[in-house]
Amino acid sequence: MSTTMLLFIALAGVMLLLLLVIKAKVQPFIALLAVSLLVALAAGIPTGEVMGVMTAGMGGVLGSVTIIIGLGAMLGRMIEHSGGAESLAQRFSQALGPKRTVAALTMAAFILGIPVFFDVGFIILAPIIYGFAKVAKVSPLKFGLPMAGVMLTVHVALPPHPGPVAAAGLLGSDIGWLTIIGLAICVPVGIIGYFVAGYLNRKAYPLSIEVLEQLQLAAPESNAPISDRLNPPSAGLIAALIIIPIAIIMSGTVSATLLEPGSGLRDTLSLLGAPAVALMIALALAYYFLAVRRGWSLQHTSDVMGAALPTAAVVILVTGAGGVFGKVLVESGVGKALAEVLTTIGLPLIPAAFIISLALRASQGSATVAILTTGGLLSEAVGGLNHLQLVLVTLATCFGGLGLSHVNDSGFWIVTKYLGLSVADGLKTWTVLTTVLSVSGFLFTWLLWLLI
Questions:
Q1: Residue 160, preceding peptide bond in cis (omega within 30° of 0)
Q2: Which of 188, 241, 263, 328 lies at a 20 to 30 A Cα distance from 359?
Q3: Close Cβ partners of 210 (under 8 Å, ≥ 6 residues apart)
Q4: DSSP state for residue 430 in the 8-state scheme
Q5: What is the residue range of 42's domain?
């Protein structure tokens, strides 16, 4: 099939998906599966392989996020139900003042995002976002949008995350210099993202009923009994329940870098540092400190934890369906066709790295795939560059993978579902923010390229 036809099919698939979700109000899970099927058939994937591709797309995403989302939702439910999120938010707001809270949380998210994968960190922080939003009586978007933006920025640009590490290997850039220069660029990019998110938040976006229930702005099916919220847990305890899994994950990341392969300590820390294991440890601590020590019955505790699963299931299914759509686009050859078109244009190296990566990100959804593919395409073109130039080409590639997060990106669905946004409002906020961050990072990178 011709490159032009493949690109047309991909564009038509995205437009049809937006039409179904925004105009026809089709449930996103159904719309994503239906459009994925149509695109697979139209792109020429053999009929006998279509369901295998779709299943692989669903499994590839859910294999990494299902356990995390489920455990994270339970932990968040325990914290919220006990009144702990509000307790932490009130203490934090009293100490910093309302004007500094968003900035402080954004800085904390920036630091958290360095060792912790974007989706894991965002899910862990979701109950805190709700708690602050409830205390401040504002939309969770005010806190969640800048926090998610800076976390994704460091996820795509800084080691030890897989995209930049793999791109560095393909392009031969030094990991140490990549970390140093990447941090130097990510800081001003994060500041820009903070102000852009504030600008986008000037408008009040309608929230989903699930998020309104979390904020107790709509009547939920089962409010927490008053007795559950008497003597709420201290802010210090809640902070510890959030920090402990993050610290455990960080220990696993650091051990993989500093300790020798095959070391028993390294293997143990790597196991404990797996996000699922770290969250299980945090959930066990929450079970004891928030439930057992506060007099909840075993059945009541089980009911509270179980009540988190229906909401989590919606996030899981829609996220998985987003993975299906992305997988179909990859297998159809859309990304490869687009890359071939862009490489024949003859752009200078730094803009080419950014534009190819950005186009691949927009066409198939995965930032990591976009970064890896671009790195592979440019691996023969970087011969003769010095070590700093190689780092800048790598960063241009990484920042390209940051932008244009939309309906074929599983991360788009995680952010919009947790923050209660419709698809249209997600495109107006999250897609715009990631693109501004992407372009800002590229411009700083290109400026350094021109100066060296």
A1: yes
A2: 188
A3: 311, 314, 420
A4: I
A5: 3-218+230-451
- Which residue type is seen at 399? F
Residue 369 lies in a domain: yes
Domains: count for the chain: 1
**Cα separation of 114 and 124, whole Å?**
15
Task: Count CB-CB contacts under 10 A for residue 258.
Answer: 10
Q: Is a pLDDT exceeding 90 seen at residue 148?
A: yes
Q: Is residue 223 part of a domain?
A: no
CA–CA gap between residue 420 and residue 364 (Å, rounded): 24
The answer to whether 394 and 185 have CB atoms below 8 angstroms apart is no
SS3 at position 214: helix
Q: Contact, 420 vs 130, CB < 8 A?
A: no
Query: pTM, whole model, 2 decimals?
Result: 0.73
Q: Is residue 42 part of a domain?
A: yes
Lowest mean pLDDT among 217-221, 310-314, 420-424: 217-221
Q: Is 225 domain-assigned?
A: no
Q: What is the pLDDT of residues 198-231, one digit of tens each?
A: 999 988 888 877 777 666 654 444 455 555 666 7
Query: Token pair of 270, please?
Result: 């790597």
pLDDT at 402: 93
Instruction: Confirm if 338 and 359 have CB atoms less than 8 A apart.
Output: yes
For residue 343, pLDDT over 70 is answered with no
Q: What is the mean pLDDT of the chain?
A: 83
Residue where the block lists tokens 């003042």? 97
Q: How would DSSP label each residue in 288-347?
A: IIIIITTT--HHHHHHHHHTTHHHHHHHHHHHHHHHHHHHHHHHHTHHHHHHHHHHTS--
